[in-house]
Design goal:
The protein is of the alpha/beta class. Helices cover about 30% and strands about 25% of the residues. The protein contains 14 helices and 25 strands. α2 packs across α3 and α6 crosses α7. The protein starts with a helix and ends in a 6-residue tail after the last helix.
């Protein structure tokens, strides 16, 4: 038995003087320096009495220390629990208690705030600041011993627990195995043609699947380099584009880049791949970006519970609004959400997934885990989608976002796509809210372009020519901004709550 994940992602870099991270302060971290810090923190964990399988929670702002702690957890056989640094104390306490974490690594401010909270006696807190100070710091680890040999683990062992957003109730801890991470990283490296010459701009949050496991693991596996930015800042991105080969982002990144006068074909001439995920990318944004840069954004599809599932091809035709083909080794099917019957191309149903990428279940939620898988072990994503005749998958919405109006099933994305194509519309969200006659009725919430005049009457006239009457919104609301999660995804549950009385 070996620790395959550590060996393939980390151990091979022990003596490499190649740059792993290029930081915003002009400093760099070589692979050798990175692995040295990983092994020292792992020894620190050993001294703390942590055993394989113990949970280590991390609530820190983005920094390279985050990645060192991640590697140390894999080396020591601990379960890594990355948390959003914006969580409140009450939210943090829920995750710590639910996961039964033995250790929290955070900043001094959070540590102080938790002093008077009732926590298990076996629980402890260590600190790391952005400047490297704290109880787990460069100076405190300077004279620490370290062990080259990682703790033995097998591919079925849990490597991480990622908590879902909990927008429809209690947050669930998705248990991610070593095999989930390793198999997906290997598949993506080959599918997206990563090699040691790549230089990835990393501006994503680091506690999420996209920024942590997709970006970081692929780079480690490829022996490539990352330009490691604290967050998305337009100037920082445009300054680094000439020196990079890949940008992984969310749709908001590309919308903001399009606002920059610096965005030209010359600026991005060295970029071989722009990737978008975590939220739907509109056809209009993709097409405008292609016109400005000559580069077609590659849209892909994944989830916390599954890592990456589908991708538009690296070599081949990328279709705006579609997430491409199932990745090698991953089975994807569309089934009727009521009968479970397998549906043919063009029919909308629930997306179900099977493969080495799929998580092992929800932490301490046996019943929810059982309900989330079919008898033949496909994971029920609760996403609605359809395959076209060429095998490209299109995600049309979430089951919870499906609108049933007057007995008709209405898929919000179909309406949103039409509205987004209208000149003067910057962004829109379509939701279903209670209606005394129809059960639910359709409400369109819109952000307009400031420079172009457009009103609900004009939008309605356009939609009646392009959509069946039952699909046309019965109301329009114009706002300045949407509630979003940290990856830019519109929080429709909050919109439904805010406008639930609109038709009453």
């Amino acid at each position: 038995m070996t620790n395959s994940l550590y060996q393939e992602l980390f151990e091979k870099h022990r003596l490499s003087e190649k740059i792993f991270l290029s930081l915003q302060n002009q400093h760099t971290v070589t692979y050798k320096e990175y692995i040295n810090s990983v092994e020292k923190i792992s020894f620190f964990f050993k001294e703390k009495g942590l055993s394989p399988g113990d949970r280590v929670a991390l609530k820190l702002k983005k920094s390279h220390y985050f990645l060192s702690i991640y590697g140390a957890c894999i080396h020591r056989g601990l379960i890594f629990l990355p948390l959003n640094h914006n969580y409140t104390d009450d939210e943090l306490l829920y995750f710590l208690k639910d996961s039964e974490s033995k250790l929290l690594i955070t900043d001094k401010e959070t540590c102080f705030q938790l002093k008077n909270k009732k926590l298990d006696k076996t629980f402890s807190i260590e600190t790391v600041e952005l400047d490297g100070s704290g109880s787990i710091s460069n100076s405190s680890l300077k004279n620490k011993h370290y062990e080259k040999k990682p703790i033995e683990r097998n591919l079925n062992d849990i490597a991480a627990i990622l908590y879902t957003s909990g927008t429809t109730g209690r947050s669930k801890g998705a248990m991610i195995t070593q095999e989930n991470l390793l198999s997906n990283a290997k598949t993506l490296r080959e599918y997206w043609c990563f090699d040691c010459e790549d230089n990835l701009i990393h501006a994503l949050p680091i506690y999420h699947t996209h920024g942590l496991f997709v970006a970081t693991n692929v780079i480690l596996l490829s022996s490539a380099k990352m330009i490691f930015l604290e967050k998305f800042e337009l100037e920082a991105i445009t300054n680094n584009l000439p020196y990079a080969t890949v940008l992984m982002g969310v749709p908001t990144y590309y919308s903001r880049l399009l606002e920059s006068k610096k965005l030209t074909k010359l600026l991005v001439k060295n970029i071989r791949l722009f990737i978008s995920g975590s939220a739907p990318l509109t056809k209009e944004t993709n097409d405008r970006f292609f016109k400005a840069t000559g580069k077609r954004i590659l849209e892909r599809y994944g989830m916390t519970e599954t890592n990456m599932i589908c991708s538009n091809p690296y070599k081949g035709f990328r279709i705006s609004g579609k997430v491409g083909f199932p990745l090698p080794g991953i089975d994807v099917r569309i089934v009727d959400q009521v009968s479970g019957q397998l549906l043919s191309h063009g029919q909308v149903g629930e997306v179900q997934v099977k493969g080495k990428n799929v998580f092992s279940g929800y932490w301490k939620m046996l019943s929810k885990t059982a309900d989330s898988f079919t008898k033949d072990n496909y994971f029920k994503t609760e996403d609605l989608g359809k395959f076209d005749n060429n095998g490209y998958l299109e995600i049309v919405g979430r089951l919870k976002d499906l609108i049933i109006s007057g007995g008709f099933n209405v898929y919000p994305k179909e309406i949103e796509d039409v509205i987004n194509s209208i000149e003067g519309i910057k962004e829109n969200a379509v939701i279903g809210v209670p209606h005394k006659d129809l059960g639910e009725s359709i409400l369109s919430i819109i952000i307009k372009e400031e420079s172009i005049k457009i009103d609900s009457k004009k939008i309605s006239e356009i939609l009646t020519k392009k959509l069946a009457k039952y699909k046309c919104p019965k109301g329009y609301i114009f706002i300045n901004s949407f509630p979003r999660n940290t990856l830019g995804k519109i929080l429709k549950n909050k919109l439904r709550e805010e406008y639930k009385d609109y038709f009453k």
